[in-house]
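Obj.: predict assembly geometry.
Materials: sequence records (below).
Method: joint structure prediction, all chains together.
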Amino acid sequence: MANVAFKRVRKDFGTTTVVQDFDLHVADGELVVLVGGSGCGKSTILRMLAGLESVTSGTVHIGEREVTHLPPRERDVAMVFQDYALYPHFTARENISLGLRLRKVPKAEIDRRVRWAAEILELEPFLDRKPKQMSGGQRQRIAMGRAMVREPAVFLFDEPLSNLDAALRGQMRHEIARMQRRIGTTTLYVTHDQMEAMTLGDRLVVLDGGRILQVGRPIDVYRAPANRFVAGFIGTPPMNFLDGRLERDLDGLVFVSDALQIPLAAKRSLDTAVESREAVTLGVRPENLALADASGPVTLRGQLVLAEVLGATTHLHVDVGGRPLIAAVPSGPAPAPGAAVALSVDPRWLHVFAADGSSLLPDSRDP
Amino acid sequence: MRAESRSGLLLSAPYTAFLLLFALFPIGFSVVLVLLKWDLVTPPSFAGLDNLQHLVADARFWQAIVNTFVFLAIHLPLQVIVALALAWSLNRPLLLRSFWRAAFFLPVVISGAAVTILWSALYATDVGLINGVLARLDLGPVPWLTDPAIAMPAIAVMATWKNVGFYVVIYLAGLQNVPQSCHEAIELEGATGWQSFRHVTLPLLKPQTLLVVTLSTINGFQLFIEPYVLTGGGPLRRTLSVVLYMYRNAFSYQKMGYAATLGLALALVIAVVLVLQRRVIGSAEES
Amino acid sequence: MQDWAAKVPLIGAVVGSAVTPAALMVLGCGQGPPPVAVPSWAKPIELRLDHLRHLGFDVTVAGRPARAVALYAEAPDYRPIGSPARDGFEGLAAVDDAARAAVVYLRHFEQTADPRSKQEALGLLTFVTAMEQGDGEFLNFIHTDGTPNRAAPTSRKSFSYWAARALWAMGEAVRVLGPDDPDVDAVRPVLDRTLSRLRRDVDRGHLVGGSATATAEALLGLLSVQQVEPTVERADLAGRTADLLVPLAQGDADTPPWGARVDPAEGVWHAWGARSTQALALAGRVLARPDLVTAAQREGDQLWVRFLLAGEVPAAVSADGSTTPFPQIAYGVSPVVEGYLALAEATEEPRYAVLAGLVAAWLLGANRPGITMYDSATGRTFDGLGGPSAEQVNRNSGAESTIEALLALGAVATHPEATVYLGYRPVGPIVSSLADAPAEREFAGPEDGRVTVSRRGATFAVQERAGASTIELKYWPAANPMEVDLARQLADVWNARHPDIQVRIQPIPAGRSSEEVLLAAVVGNATPDICSNVSSGLLGRLVRAGAVVRLDGLAATAARLGERTSEPMLEPMRLPDGGIYAMPWKTNPMMLMYNVDHLAEAGVEPPGTYSELIEALRRLVRDTDGDERLDRWGFWARLKTTWFERFYDFYPLYLAASEGRTLVSQGEVVFENEAAVAAIEVLRQAFAERLLPRSNFEGRDPFMDGTVAMKVVGPWFVKELEELKIPGLRYDVTPVPVPDGNDPEAAYAFADLKNIAVFSTTRHPAAAARFVAFLTSPEADRLMIEEIAQLPYRRALATDQRFADALTRWPTLQAYAARTDRGRDIDVDPDIVEVFDILSEAYEAAAIYGVVSPEQAVRDAAGEARAVLRAR
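Observations (raw structure tokens):
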């Protein structure tokens, strides 16, 4: 158990900089999720912590030790790989226990730990099978068991669920969360799936292009995304964006986009910082759009293109003056495609982003 | 017959004829020859089981089998170890790596006779290069090819040099199939380089190792050009190989029936040995 | 179920298609087309002595038991009888006939080593020498009871015809049996006295008995002795005797009697006894006097050529050139035949041999009535032709006719270029006038062969013309450049002389060894007509396969075998059926070659015995560069066990010790003896004392670079040494050492023979045989010595005048030549290679590695070899 610190870590591959100026503290026992698109550097950061990649500049710390140049086997980290990296010729039991056997841990202790991990992960029936005789989920659990029995200072997960089907992914997410809470080891978890990120992490680190875009609790990142990328990345279905500009009128700021006008009067906090006629992007999450009657506040009018019924919720794809929007509404009698539709938006949940992507909202707390 | 089968049979007919003529017919012919006495130029006569009886009591044949096992006992481990070591060294970024890979493969494609003649110059007791180097180190000249106990091991070393390149290629392919993540995983688990090799690489190379051993065994049993050029089967028959003995019976003594008998016996011995090897090393599917 | 039903027939078809043709082919294998049968005209003439023996009888003369031949025998029962009433009852037998009969038997012994013939000859000589009267003069006839007839003019004590013949017989005895033979000693005193008596006549310029015939026959005897025991006095006497004959010739190319040599008293040339040409030609050759040869040619090129142009040899020719054609007798034909053969040998021009054959054909039917005079079943020859018709044949057969026929045919039978023409007949009518004889006469032979004899001024030409079509022969020499070159040279000479038989050279196709190539050629029916690279080891297998033609069954090669080799030289090459299946062509007898300077430096004589050899090896080892390792040795004994490696150590030593015994004889193992053990033991000792290098010396010759001082090798190596001109390498040869107590000069050498074979696929066996006879002619043999420094397998090579010059072309060749008569080669046995392999391994175990005693090694090897021979 230990905390983890990255201090101004940078990684170059040849002339290309993949990770820039990465600073992060992970508290002891915390589960931090590194999330971002492909090529954002998240796996590289993880591997630098493991020692599988060298660090170009900066330092990495695990607990009290600086581990920047230590070989992997001396760092006391365990990793669960995307392709599980099980040893195909060993049984599950042997896979799990190999690390311990290599370190000459007494046999009794090995057996105890293996039993412990098997119990937590429900692996007892499979311990004597070889990996090729097991399903993906079972294999993933073996990989986790292998990491667990080491009782390392840090767990690393490198997109462990990417190779599993959707149902299994969901199940395994819970397993991982449950396991981590139970054992309490500091964990870094890399994924490109924002749902995993939201459900698993104590904190999220959103990355793009080798830089940190935002760090924070999932709910905070969700409600108060620091920039447009984060806002669009987190949340399903993704946030609706409308480009336009701000104008001031008698009541305050108004978002104007062609024929559309959405007053932002309630956002008084914007007044001081913003000039009128500035180009901005308005963001509103689908779940904050509702079907409205024709005369409600902040109404958008458009035509229904498509209605996806997901069960309790229905996603309405609406064309508003040429711009596509998605609204997530409770299912009910829905208008037919092509019908005129009016959507109302709760102004409390409007996001405004400047031209450079940064959010013009001051913080993430409820207004 | 369906049209498809008919055209299939027709299209495969040329190659079938080729196989029948050059593969099956010689095999059938050899089997028939076992029962005959024939000197190529006069009509053959029926020999019944004489050839087989002679084989069983033939000290030279059994000596040749023993010689082959001696050869394999040295050649096989050497081949596997050297090929694996070379493949492992060549599997990392290296200056002039393509050159090294080609260089190690070159002996495979040089004609066996040329290689053998080259090594006869290396092994020559008085003026050979190897003894020359040893002389610089004040070590006595070693009678590489004229000492009964040393001759076959010397040939085994030479055969290793000749063929190792081929198996380096096979091992290289195998090494590249070992998942990098397995190495990383075991590294994280605290394994040293050697432990990683032993627990991850080696077991995953089992199919290649089985191939190397099988092919080397078959080649070892078919040893011919080296004893033929270097030693003529001596000293004291210790480098006599079955194929050399067979060749002698066929083309020096014109005893075609007995030569065919030797060939058949050799094939059987190879088959038995391969089966045993498979049992010991394990089949390729188990990894 | 359905799957299997479909598969079984398929599997059956596959297996069946593999096994069935295998079985069929195997059963039908190894059978090529049947070989071409040798036509009867190509077979050698049979020399039978049956009738002559029938005429022989025991007689006691001057108290000594002897043999004689009856003068006459009359048809049809051919009971031997003596001189009839018309001749005055001279007696039952005469020195005349006995002496010439002795010559016949001596020559037969020379060819066949048949002891009966030697016995008979000695018996006849006892009779002949007993008739000498103490002063070199002889009586002639004896009566039935053995008493001489002193009275009859044809029997009086004198130095005449019968004395001359006696001299001839004694001379031949010395030549054939050898000057040191004890049986010859008994003849010596008489011989010496006879020669003294001859000298008296010659000193006074008298012809013996006033007769050219008698003088010529005496000269023949004198020359026989001179050939094997040359002395200056005899040479002088012979020269002056010959000089007496020279001026007797009369006429010239255009003037009758066209060079005929006539007795001064006679004035008429008669065929019978016309021996001057033969004697002069022989004298010219033996005494190295070309003028005598020219003298012989005067009659042979002119008068005798007219006989051929006319179509027959007449009984007599007068001074004006008119002829008396009959009676024609063998005694008239034989001197012409032998005269031509003597000219052929003296001039080395084959055209004379052709004429000899054409004339000798008279005995086989080339006469006006077409009667075969010589019976090849018994040797009985009819006494003569009285006239042109068949009724005029005198079918009696006395001693003289048979003797002369045997002399003529015996000489032709050892002349390859003559024997071919025995089957030829003149084309067109016989012309009785020599003056009107055509300028050209054609002779027709079997298979449309044609020979044309034409007069060219004072000499003549012989041309052979193709019959129906040109015969082409394919000849494979060994592939090494020297032999190919030699082959081309010889083929060019042959092709120029024989436009109707053209020889094409193709070096043996490439292969690991020529043996494999030849066997493959046999299997594939792609053999050439002739190959000159056949080793004796291979010959056994070729004969077993029926792939080669029996060469003593073809006239030309049978003749060459008779001319070139003695029976002891041929005996090891005879197959169990007695046949000779390849012509032994060249030999490289192995001797011990040594570096003169190294041996001198070590103070060592060339070793002759095993002890001397070991001592020499001890003294010759050196460490010359101070690295405490020996780098100079006395000898290199090869370490590999491949069978032919033993040719350079064990096998020569064994042959030298074994008094001629080889490894296998008539299918039995004969090497289990002390000689084999001794040969292995001496090398074992040398290895044990570390006197021999343990190295394979790959790619270099340690003798050439001075690493070893001695080497067992044949004369071919001399050419390499001379051509490489290695500075400072002086070498000489000595016979291979023998066990202590044996005589090195009497030991046998490893002959390393190469033979010429005619393959049974040839379409022209007779023509092929003629070419083979040419390849082994004295002319070709000389070229071989000069071009490739290898020796023809020829008897008495070292003393044969014809090769003396050639042998000086390369150093040490004369020493090697002395070994050719005492050679032993690899046994002609199909399994000899395997036997050699077995012995080689036994040798290795005993000598090189010392893991088994030589006795045990030889015993084991013999046992294994016997098993191999038994198993076939």
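Conclusions so far: Chain C has a mean pLDDT of 89.
To do: check interface contacts against the pulldown list.
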